[in-house]
């Protein structure tokens, strides 16, 4: 299979879909890999590194989209990239379609077969379904959310002027983490490490029990319902939005009215912004201009947080995305998805139809079941 990896063009996105090591492994399986020149600069990988791995270098993205059978990316294709996608081509990347009707319409129009990292599933402990291709970026974003929030709390950045860990004789900052999944766990872990006063909220009692056992007295847990949430948000210096419904738009849990109960200069970090955000007042920001202030509350809503630590993120991502990529390349997408129902859960769009239920429901498309797409 001819596989292409273009340079990412989203604002300050420095990650790359394939590392030189991943390109070499695809080559070992008998596949040809094309890399757009400069694609790996953000992780310290030169064109020469890719050439040493056996990849070909192309000067622009056009040949990749025109000729490659599979396009491997990190972030969702931007409008100019979507215009180059074509029928029968495989797109393998993060997509986050539910809150993005224009991207969904463009992918449907293109006829591409789009496999989204964020909806590929995997077996977890105690029968819990995991999202293994999303997990490493959730780990990165969870830890980064505390770094970002701590910076935003500084007075020079519009915050209250609070040090999360406090100092002897001065109370630490109060951190509320909404959602006890991967993002929430790693955010809480980072905040606890800084010495903050941490409360994790979730509506799953079993999840709260696991978190309570892990953190013991270092972090508190509280059941998430509208009343408890409103109370905790009003007391918080930093709120981390870490809610995820796989493939679907995030619920708006923190309302604008709640902002009026918070101290001016408090901070909201919306890690769910890729899925539309879990704060009513959120809108996507960039690393160029990461925050905005509404009703006196600082909002950090960068949609590609892990892009700021591109080398760590890219290698963590490739660790989990390469094995499915090899399956798709070795077997063809249909046989790979037939053989692996977890990988089949990643199919979001195929041949002009939406194949992921949450996306079809959110955006009003008639659903093409994955089984029918595979049987066609």
Describe the overall structure.
The two termini are 21 Å apart. By secondary structure, the protein is of the alpha/beta class. Helix 2 links the parallel strand 2 (32-36) and strand 3 (56-58). The strands form three sheets. The protein has an eight-stranded mixed β-sheet with strand order 3-2-1-4-5-6-16-17, with helices on both faces. A seven-stranded mixed β-sheet has the order 11-10-9-12-13-15-14, sandwiched between helices. Strands 7-8 form a two-stranded antiparallel sheet. It is 36% helix and 17% strand. The model has no long low-confidence stretch (mean pLDDT 96). It contains 15 helices and 17 strands. It has two domains: 2-119 and 310-375, Rossmann fold (3-Layer(aba) Sandwich); 135-303, Rossmann fold.
CATH class of the largest domain: Alpha Beta
Give the assembly state of these chains: single chain
Could you give the distance between the termini?
Answer: 21 Å
User: What is the CATH T-level topology of the largest domain?
Assistant: Rossmann fold
Superfamily (CATH H level) name of the largest domain = NAD(P)-binding Rossmann-like Domain
Question: What helical percentage do the residues reach?
Answer: 25-40%
The total tally of domains equals 2
Low confidence ranges: none
Q: Give the DSSP E fraction (strand runs of 2 or more residues).
A: 15-25%
Tally of individual helices: 15
What class, by secondary structure content?
alpha/beta
Question: How many beta-strand runs?
Answer: 17
Q: Which strand order spans the largest sheet, edge to edge or round the barrel?
A: 3-2-1-4-5-6-16-17
CATH architecture term of the largest domain: 3-Layer(aba) Sandwich
The Rg value, from CA coordinates, equals: 21 Å
Give average pLDDT, whole number.
96
- Choose one word for the global shape: globular
Largest sheet: 8 strands, mixed
């Amino acid at each position: 299979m001819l596989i292409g990896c273009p340079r990412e063009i989203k604002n300050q996105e420095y990650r790359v879909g394939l590392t030189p090591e991943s390109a070499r492994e695809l080559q070992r399986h008998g596949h040809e890999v094309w890399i757009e020149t400069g694609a790996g600069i953000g992780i310290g990988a030169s064109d020469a590194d890719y050439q040493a791995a056996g990849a070909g270098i192309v000067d622009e993205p056009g040949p990749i989209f025109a000729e490659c059978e599979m396009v491997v990316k990190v972030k969702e294709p931007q409008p100019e990239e979507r215009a180059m996608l074509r029928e029968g081509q495989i797109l393998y990347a993060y997509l986050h379609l539910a809150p993005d009707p224009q991207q969904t319409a463009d992918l449907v129009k293109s006829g591409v077969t789009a496999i989204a990292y964020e909806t590929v599933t995997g077996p977890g402990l105690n029968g819990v379904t995991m999202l293994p291709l999303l997990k490493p970026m959730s780990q990165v974003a969870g830890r980064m959310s505390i770094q970002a929030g701590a910076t935003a709390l500084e007075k020079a950045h519009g915050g209250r002027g609070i040090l999360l860990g406090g100092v002897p004789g001065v109370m630490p900052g109060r951190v509320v983490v909404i959602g006890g999944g991967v993002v929430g766990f790693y955010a809480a872990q980072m905040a606890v490490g800084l010495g903050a006063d941490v409360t994790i909220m979730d509506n799953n009692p079993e999840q709260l029990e696991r978190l309570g056992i892990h953190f013991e007295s270092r972090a508190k847990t509280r059941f998430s319902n509208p009343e408890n949430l409103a109370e905790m948000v009003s007391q918080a210096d930093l709120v981390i939005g870490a809610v995820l419904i796989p493939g679907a738009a995030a619920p708006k849990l923190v309302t604008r009215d709640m902002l009026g109960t918070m101290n001016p200069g408090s901070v909201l970090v919306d890690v769910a912004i890729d899925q539309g955000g879990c704060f009513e007042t959120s809108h996507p920001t960039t690393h160029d201009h990461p925050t905005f202030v509404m009703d006196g509350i600082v909002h950090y809503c960068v949609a590609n947080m892990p892009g700021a630590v591109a080398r760590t993120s890219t290698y963590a991502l490739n660790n989990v995305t390469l094995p499915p990529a090899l399956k798709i390349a070795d077997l063809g997408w249909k046989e790979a998805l037939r053989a692996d129902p977890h990988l089949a859960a990643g199919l979001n769009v195929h041949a002009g139809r939406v194949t992921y239920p949450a996306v079809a429901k959110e955006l009003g498309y008639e659903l093409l079941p994955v089984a029918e797409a595979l049987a066609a």
